[in-house]
TrEMBL record, chain A:
Listed InterPro entries: FAD/NAD-bd_sf, FixC-like, FixC-like_C
GO molecular function, one term: electron-transferring-flavoprotein dehydrogenase activity
Protein name: Electron transfer flavoprotein-ubiquinone oxidoreductase
Gene3D superfamilies named in the record: FAD/NAD(P)-binding domain
Flavoprotein in keyword set: yes
Family: Belongs to the ETF-QO/FixC family.
Pfam families (alphabetical): ETF-QO_FixC_C, FAD_oxidored
Organism from which the protein derives: Aneurinibacillus soli
Cofactor annotation: FAD
Alphabetized UniProt keyword annotations: FAD, Flavoprotein, Oxidoreductase, Ubiquinone
Domain of life of the organism encoding this protein: Bacteria
UniProtKB/TrEMBL annotation, chain B:
Keywords per UniProt: Electron transport, Iron, Iron-sulfur, Metal-binding, Nitrogen fixation, Transport
Iron recorded as keyword: yes
The protein's name: Ferredoxin-like protein
Organism: Aneurinibacillus soli
Protein family per UniProt: To ferredoxins from P.putida and C.tartarivorum, ferredoxin I from A.vinelandii, ferredoxin II from D.desulfuricans.
Gene Ontology terms for molecular function: iron ion binding; iron-sulfur cluster binding
Keyword Iron-sulfur: yes
Entry coiled-coil feature ranges: none
Length: 431, 104
């Protein structure tokens, strides 16, 4: 297949498909290469897809895409060993068009999304690994695949090969990631009848809930658990930094079983049948770990460029915006017949100026701060649970005395100055 | 507390083996994972961390050498990044091979 394309996109995930779709729609000759059996067969995410960024690419996509449930309630749990302090928001405005976000099963969704790119003219080739970029005189001019006679050429290569981005690394765009830059997440899909889901999560049909779980879900290690409702199944998972797993000698599936068996969680999944188990890395290094994303004849999009906002569980939407912006820049580059780093740099500038760059920058120190100051997860979440328990237990103690006692127990064994510093530090990285 | 202590009381809702059976694999005849130097595992790495954090329990220490059950690999990349001695050569399985997620 020694054919030349306008653009080759490596990896059919949200970033790669978005780029391929936008370019093909504009009339470019696009090759989309996926190493899995089909798009989505190697892809994992908790399951929440945001509407807005996808809508910018295919307006009204939700009328035909295979989606599970629109999310009407987003809960946050600060979990203790036998308790939980909850907050969240339920808004029925999210149950109607244009929606806020949806749960999706990636294998279904990605296949559908890739088929849309094919519809507008992209050529999709599955079961093909890109082993390296072909570089000539400092420019990327194509890719080498693991097929016989598998060199393919293009004016520009879009690298969307995911969190491990072996291609980005081989181009020298980044060094090997550190265990603190990635979270190892494992999840299960658990089949459960729709009525059970609706009863247990207090939902109408075609409404969904997400729960993010902090604290005991990861035994105090930096990370989160999650429970998302699909139509007739539940995604339950837990992710923690690889460095945290290593430090505490944890097996990720043990953490998952711990969460599934937690007395607060157990009733939600009771009677469910495990249907799939999946593991994946999440790039959590944020802005500070972002690699170089533009070179001569090449751009990097999505997880490959560490475009994940771990604090807000956003990633696929950032990937889609990155893919779209990269595609729009390549369309301009095609008109100018200039695929130099200088020209393609417009993509980087626009990305950093978009919500992607701004949000990544806003939280650039957050992950690192929580990693190096484990007290937020180890101490404060149990403290909040203890305080809530005391506050809501009616035992004849007058409220004023109760508040005093709670404050005393909260500050027990802790310097007040230290706590003030902790609060200030958290505010600073989150503001 | 370390992992084993923390987790010693956790009842298994399903074992890892049962979890792995939920998945479909199209294993290649060749491994895409290689331990570069078994001596490093034997002499420098008492904790054998990869045997712990690998979500597919691909790595098992057999007393003298590290066995690599690449057939059950999730292709997550943790072993490459997490091995303190950079002792694992990590590639993708050949196109179309390896794990096939149907739902995730």
């Amino acid at each position: 297949m020694s054919e030349k394309f306008d653009a080759i996109v490596v990896g059919a995930g949200p970033a790669g498909i978005s780029a391929a779709y936008v370019m093909a729609k504009a009339g470019l000759n696009v090759l989309l290469i996926e190493r899995g059996e089909y798009p989505g067969s190697k892809n994992v995410m908790g399951g929440v897809l945001y509407r807005h960024q996808m809508d910018e690419i295919i307006p009204g996509f939700y009328k035909e895409a295979p989606l599970e449930r629109p999310i009407v309630e987003q809960r946050f749990w600060m979990m203790g060993e036998e308790s939980v302090f909850t907050s969240g928001y339920k808004g029925l405005e999210w149950s109607k068009e244009p929606y806020n976000n949806f749960t999706v099963l990636r294998a279904k969704f990605d296949q559908w999304y890739a088929s849309k790119a094919v519809e507008v003219g992209a050529l999709l080739i599955n079961e093909t690994v890109v082993t390296e970029c072909i570089v000539e005189d400092g420019r990327v001019i194509g890719v080498r695949t693991d097929r016989p006679d598998g060199d393919v050429y293009a004016d520009v290569v879009v690298i969307a090969d995911g969190v491990n981005s072996l291609l980005g690394k081989s181009l020298g765009f980044h060094k090997e990631f550190k265990p603190s830059d990635v979270a190892l997440a494992v999840m299960e899909v658990i089949d459960l009848p729709a009525e059970k889901i609706e009863d247990r999560f207090n939902l109408e049909p075609n409404q969904g809930t997400t729960i993010e779980i902090f604290g005991d879900a990861t035994k105090g290690i930096l990370g989160t658990g999650f429970i998302y409702t699909n139509k007739e199944s539940i995604n339950i998972g837990v992710g923690a930094t690889l460095s945290g797993m290593i430090k505490h000698r944890l097996r990720p599936y043990d953490l998952l079983d711990y969460l599934k068996d937690h007395p607060i969680v157990r009733p939600l999944i009771r009677g469910g049948e495990p249907a799939e188990y999946a593991a994946h890395l999440i790039p959590e290094g944020g802005y500070n770990a972002m690699p170089k994303i533009v070179g001569n004849g090449v751009v990097l999009v999505g997880d490959a460029g560490q475009m994940v906002n771990g604090i807000h569980r956003e990633g696929s939407n950032m990937a889609m915006t990155a893919g779209r912006l990269a595609a729009e820049t390549i369309i301009l580059a095609k008109q100018a017949n200039d695929f130099s780093e200088n020209m393609l740099d417009t993509y980087r500038v626009r990305l950093l100026d978009s919500f992607v760059g701004r949000d990544l920058k806003k939280y650039k120190d957050a992950t690192h701060t929580f990693e190096t100051h484990p007290q937020y997860f180890n101490d404060y979440i149990p403290m909040i649970n203890k305080a809530a328990s005391q506050f809501f237990t009616i035992d004849g103690v007058p409220k004023r005395d109760k508040q005093k006692k709670i404050f005393r127990s909260l500050t027990e064994g802790k310097s007040k100055l230290g706590m003030v510093q902790d609060i200030y530090r958290a505010w600073k990285v989150m503001k | 507390m370390e992992g084993d202590e923390i987790m010693s009381l956790v009842p298994r809702t399903n074992t890892l083996e049962e979890k792995q059976y939920l998945l479909r694999y199209r294993a290649d005849s060749q491994s895409h994972l290689h331990v570069l130097n078994n001596d490093v595992c034997a002499t420098s790495c008492p904790d054998k961390l990869c045997t712990l954090f690998c979500p597919g329990e691909v790595y098992k220490w057999e007393g003298k050498r590290m066995s690599v059950g690449y057939e059950g690999c999730h292709e997550c990349g943790s072993c490459r990044i997490g091995c303190p001695y950079e002792n694992i050569k990590w590639e993708y399985p050949k196109g179309g091979h390896g794990i096939v997620f149907r739902l995730a």
